[in-house]
Amino acid sequence: MLKIAIQKSGRLYDQSVQLLKECGIELNNGNRQLKVQAFNFPAEAYFLRDDDIPQYVCDGVADIGIVGENVFFEKNKDIQIVRKLGFGRCRLSIAVPKSLKYSGLKDLNGLKIATSYTVLLKKFLEKNNLKAEIHEISGSVEIAPGIGLADAICDLVSSGSTLFTNNLKEVEVVLNSEAALVANKNLDEENTKILDNLLLRIDAVKAAKNYKYIMMNAPDHQLKNICALLP
What we know:
Blueprint: E1 2-7, H1 13-22, E2 35-37, E3 43-48, H2 53-59, E4 64-68, H3 69-75, E5 79-84, E6 90-97, E7 112-115, H4 118-127, E8 133-136, E9 152-157, H5 161-165, E10 168-177, E11 179-184, H6 189-217, H7 220-229
């Protein structure tokens, strides 16, 4: 029985469950249970906080999990990414007040930067030989400059609307991220076979979506040629 850890709420929950459904794995989680067994696949799902998933997979409580790459790299557990999933795309970025004149990385020197991603931010600063003070906070990071808690922030960005609302501008990308399937490095033979089966299904789903996209966007003359190749 393959144990799958999934975010119990948040931006990856719906698409993670939808992916499993498209792979033919039905989960009845109407009551938001924390543990659900699949009807038609040798797997059960655990619904957990996203930040906890790498630890559960590392400890073997779960065999695999779906998390953002941002969480995978920030938690830095001894687990492996076995497949990038193509959804939940975002970026971990540094943003500063719109009023601040910013000309390049050197302008980060001496600033106090608020973030929930201290590990990734520290690596970014060290890589670029920058000296800035990291102020760790959780939740509502974007308000930190406005209340005088920090000079800048390092947080996840997707559309940028939250930054705009808080009079911030994105100036540096620390990490581009998307959802990924992570796995324990010591799966037994049975669960390795089940995982291989799941990966085949995921690859088939992704290939079908790509094919559908090509069909929908192909010019009429190319579409006729594509259809002529179909059995």
